[in-house]
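Open question from group meeting: does this chain pack into something compact, or does most of it stay loose? Before anyone orders reagents, we agreed to write out a predicted structure and look at it together. Recording both the input and the output here so the notebook holds the full record.
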Amino acid sequence: MNNPRLLRRTARVAAATAVSLATLGATSPAVPAAARIPHDVRSIALQGSDPAQRALSARRTAPFSMVGVTWADSRAELGGTAQVRTRDSVTGVWSGWRDLELDVRTPETGTGTEAGASRAGTQPLWTGPSDGVQVRVTGRELSKLPAGLRVELVDPERDTTATTSQAGAAGVAPERDTATTTSQAGAAASAPAVVPRSGWGADESLVLSPAKYTTDTKVVFTHHTAGTNDYTCAQSADIIRAIFLYHVQGQGWNDIGYHFLVDKCGNVFEGRAGGIDEPVVGAQTYGLNTDTAGVAVLGNYNEAPTPQPVLQAVAGLAAWKLGLAGYDATGTAELTSAADNGKFTKGQKVVLNRISGHRDGYPTECPGNNLYADLTAIRALAAAAQAD
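Structure tokens returned:
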């Protein structure tokens, strides 16, 4: 049977494979991820002889705008606190100590990492232009910290492949296939305007493996990136490029974990490659990455109220994405956990809202109390979008 979506997907995978072979050389072996030399992320090992404490003394560094802490065992939890302070490269003033969020897990095996290269890590923190850092990590109740702790300093400005940023300009039309829904439970919703990967400057040479696909998108998980709300929407492309570099070069993932990102102005950005209208496997809700999509809102919504443009953007995006498979945005779906993730056991079947928060699928505060409380309103807006 000629399935248009399957044909598009096959063509996309073939094209991605051809690009990968052309880049690496058809007769040359692929360069292992661990052998890649990071050119946008600088790593500095944390020091200390106490098994429950690691630190990095205050020091000047090369320029960076995002910081995070990673460790070698991709399955280990930090089990404590990680704090940083940074030096503003314009004013020379050091910030106060800021906590890094720890509730990040790697993708399940085979769904987004390069073999043997994946590292666990904190959520990255956007600092703005900085040239100094100090770090302190302490284990909970003096518990032993994981090995290989290091700080990752991300400089998105060093990316030379980026095209002109389209961030901050609402209504930017992407290059994409035209997708339609079937006449099932969920009505068709208009496709949103999405800033493509080229719009935020994704370095596609860093993505060494083609996207993986599942059957369809049954649930949309809402996230926040934590960190700070103190950014302008003209900086959104830089922030997303920095998250991409942190995931790929700092943690060894194949691509950015989220399928979509939304800034506080309501601009929607394409995340993981593979086709925005396709059921691409992401790395965004550990244990439940199959048949789901992740939408991350830039900012900390434990601290800030959710702007109305964000509510509209997330609702419209979820209504369209779920509608591609004919799903009602206000309904529920049954998923099977692919891992013991602290909330569900491997193989456990769970029923979730079609539009859920990260905390519904994983033990975390994400997407923040304010954004999570707004999911009821987002579902209502999505239902209205599907009814139009």
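Observations to bring back to the group:
The longest strand covers residues 53-71.
Residues 34-157 form a domain with the Jelly Rolls fold (CATH 2.60.120).
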